[in-house]
């Protein structure tokens, strides 16, 4: 299977049209995956990524901020690698003008393997090691310090070796959380950044900048799934106000770039891509007009919103049964690919599409049923009590909106293998063309990463 390259899609089409096009592309890809043997009895689960959809999202992000920023404003959109840590995805986004926001040595290695240059890479993490900081500073990668101890560590590093890295500090504006507590990063007790409303913290931050002329960026990330756009904008406004205060007290434009994070929530209820980047950018322009007047460069760190709508986990129905009068479809997609959904279904519900054995969308009377995974515990359910066309043995269940995080959080319960992932797009002569993004994990690889090379380690001389 050759790597796919094709024309960019229509960035300016109406959201309903984009949703309709995305659904049609998905249906065509599912049917083609079955017909071409990518999925079937011997390969009962795969992941699919819509290349055209990803390009469309990247173009929409650029267009949204270009529409509100003063001409010539430097804007770096850095994809949060944690959302989909796959080198071909990072390379595709890089070719669409999207950089990388990394939070570990591993994510930085992925970004570098994808060809993302240091000048378009940002390192954020609450637990950066000295080695990670030294590498970033040597490469010239932008670094946002998370806390006073880390800033003190950077003090020593910049004194011992010159660096081209833009350096900043992450603050927590403490504007409140959203509906998913575990993802809320701007609460009073969040582990991220310097808590601005704690006693003495704001003055400490100002003084930290005044004492360090090389600190030129200010970073905050208030967004997440479950957060309202208004609360996200309030966090950006608080950060902007702090930057203005620091620059006023410095008597110069010391802070020249604001990193406003990402966290645009995703609609998991339908194909509609809402809220949009354009809506968020317009709200920011109304709430914080000075943000876009050209005095500050901007960095964003969107992840989920760029990829979620463009991924599908497709799993074969191995068996069907009934229990307590309810139909149950036992599939090969469960906790190993959808841990958040299985363990927190109220916060992370997924739509599940029903396809027949030939990969065609199923119609007919809806039946209340459970869509179960292969893992050995009762709660391994993609969907519970869901009304949908009845799934039968040999059919396919498609977990939709899984392009972000669902390909990142493999959970090796029962030593279930990581599924292969394939990008899809239009073929040169019609139809669907697939490209390998990540090969399926082999049984040999499972044994190797489970200590297979050290089988005698505990039965020897100990």
Automatic annotation (TrEMBL):
Q: Which domain of life is it from?
A: Bacteria
Example GO molecular function term? diaminopimelate decarboxylase activity
Q: Which Pfam families match?
A: Orn_Arg_deC_N, Orn_DAP_Arg_deC
Which organism was this protein described from?
Answer: Streptomyces scabichelini
The residues annotated as the active site are 376
What are the GO BP annotations of this UniProt entry? lysine biosynthetic process via diaminopimelate
Q: Which residues carry this modification: N6-(pyridoxal phosphate)lysine?
A: 82
Q: Which family does it belong to?
A: Belongs to the Orn/Lys/Arg decarboxylase class-II family.
Cofactor (UniProt): pyridoxal 5'-phosphate
Q: Which InterPro entries match?
A: Ala_racemase/Decarboxylase_C, De-COase2_C, De-COase2_CS, De-COase2_N, Orn/DAP/Arg_de-COase, PLP-binding_barrel
Where does the Orn/DAP/Arg decarboxylase 2 C-terminal domain start and stop, copy by copy? Answer: 309-403
What keywords is this UniProt entry annotated with? Pyridoxal phosphate
Would you tell me the protein name for this molecule? Answer: Diaminopimelate decarboxylase
